[in-house]
Each structure stands twice: as structure tokens, then as C-alpha cells.
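Predict fold of DUF1573 domain-containing protein; 361 aa.
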Amino acid sequence: MKRIYTLLFLCVVACMSLWAQPKISFDMTTKDLGYVLWRTPATVTYQFTNTGDKPLVISNVTTSCGCAKAQWTEEPVPAGGKGKITVVFDAEAIGHFYKDVGVYCNAASLPIYLDFNGEVTADAKNYSFTHPYAIGAIRLTQDELDFKSVNKGDRPVIELLVANTSNKAYSPVLMHLPPYLEAKAEPEKLGRGKTGKILVTLDSEKLPKLGITRASVYLSRFPGDKVGSENEIPVSVALLPDFSKLTGQQKNNPPQITLSAKELEFVDLKPNQKKSQTIVISNTGRSDLNIQDMQVFSMALAVKLKKRVLKPGESTKMKITVLAQNLHRVKGTPRVLMITDDPNQPMITIRVKARLKSSEK
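Predicted 3D structure, encoded as C-alpha cells:
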């Protein structure tokens, strides 16, 4: 009987060891680089997640061409952890290309193949200067939609210019639009190498609240595309207070916000450094100043504000900390935005410039 129990126990242990396996899941297995300038190295990045329940180890990554060199996360990736494979492609010939990337890891007995494609051109007109932001093979003139401040009833429009550097026709589409945004592409389809625009209209009547509203929309790179950090475009807007109903006494005795600085600069940061600066906020007006709303526009910033209501002549401090480890994930300009009841300055923007040491970027 003991022998039977022992055999059963060994079988269970063996089965559990088979069930507990690493599993690799890529954000995308195919990358369209669009037009690549001859003799100008292009970088392809594949993000992956270990969706298994044992550490994932990549032992080797190969490429189908000597013109492509691969680097990868070499340390074991724990269950739920993330890593990346980076391939630098330095084109040797002009024309269309298709390259394979073989990934050898303990999640599969055979290599897992990724690929990237595009077209090498000697024409310097690759839209990298006129459309500096790339989402796949699509280039844009801006990487965020900032409507700044609006009043109730306004319908501002942002013109997002688009360049198609892929080797096929492309239909510009913004996904996951919130109810207060409308988007229209002109033209609806772009041929290879062609440019167009997306007109994004804000209906301020549909904004959910007074003050700052933030959201994200996503640029579709191809039919059936999914949403993710790679094609995310942040959206921000500030709906200002209505000062049209102020009494004569309120107009003659308004609060007045004064800041010791509206721009901060952090230089030579180390990759994991946290560095802080302080701004003094004062009420130099004649009635109470209310900071009605405050938003931090970056995961690389942390902000502490001691008081939100200041009496005339009173001051408070705002501490702004830069988290250097998150700078590489920043989209748009890191900033802090405040909505106040100062009728002359209802919206205040504090911009933060931060950069790593050049040798440690």
C-alpha cells in the first residue's frame, strides 16, 4: 500500500512540474518599419511578458541577416515580469526587405520566430523631421492631444498631421474615442509615402466635469490593431470656471496667484535617482484663493501641495519630485496643471525639463 501511495505522489509531483512552465507572450510578432534610410541604422523592439509560472530564460536570439544585430534581456524574467528584444538593422542594399528573428528560450523546445519588414530608400525625405513621432510605420507631428483651456460651449479642433511610411495603403483611425471627442481623417486613405491629417474636435459641452480631464486614444496602425502603450496618444483638456456671474465686489477684490517659478529644470539625473525642487505659491490678491483642481501630466513626476486654500497674503509650498527611472516612459511634456479661481489666471502650467546624464541614457 505504501508503494502505491509513493507512486501516486511521484506522479502528482511529475505532473505539477509539467504544469509549471514559463510562457512568453509578445506585444507584436511582426513589425512594419516602413521606409528606412540607407546606411542609417533602424531599431526594432519586441516587448514580451512571462505569462507562465516559472522564470523565463532567453538563451539566444538569432537574425536571418548579418545586417541585423540582436540584444535581449539576459537575466531570468520572473512570472509576470517583462523584458525586451532589441534588433538594430543597418541596411546594406536598397529595396524591400523581410527579416526573421529567432528566439531560443526555455518556454519552447523550438525557436520562436519574429519578423520585421520595410523598404530601404536613399531618399532623405523620410518624414522624420516634419513628422518626428513614430507609431509603427506611421509618423505624426505630435505625440499628445493637448486642448489646453476651454470654456463651456467651445469646440476647438486639433489638426494631427499623419505620414504613411509603410509599403501599403493606410487608413488613419483613432480608437477608443471618449464621448467628448470626434475624429475625421482627410483623406480617409493614404497611399504609401503619402501624408494627410486627422481633425480631432472637442465638444466641451460633453466634458464630464469642471477642471482637468485626461484620457487616452489609440492610433490604429493596421486593420484589427489592438490598443497598447506603443500606439497610445494622451489627451488633456481643462474646462475653466465661469466668471461671468461674479458680483461687482468680487470683481474688484479678486484673489491673485503668484508662483516663484513656472518652469523647473533637472539635469544630469542618474537612472534611478529621485530629485526634488520646491515652488512657493502665494496669494497676493484681496480674497481667498482656491486651487480647485490639480493634475500631474507624467508618471515621472510626484507632487505634494500643502494647502489648497490661501488667504490674502498667505503662501504654501509645492514639492515636485522627478522619478528618473520613469523618464523613458514619458510621452509629451512633463508638467503640473492647476485650476484656480483667480479670474486673471484660471489655469497655471508648471513645465518640468528633466534629462539623464548623457553617458547613462
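The domain at 22-121 is CATH 2.60.40.10 (Immunoglobulin-like).
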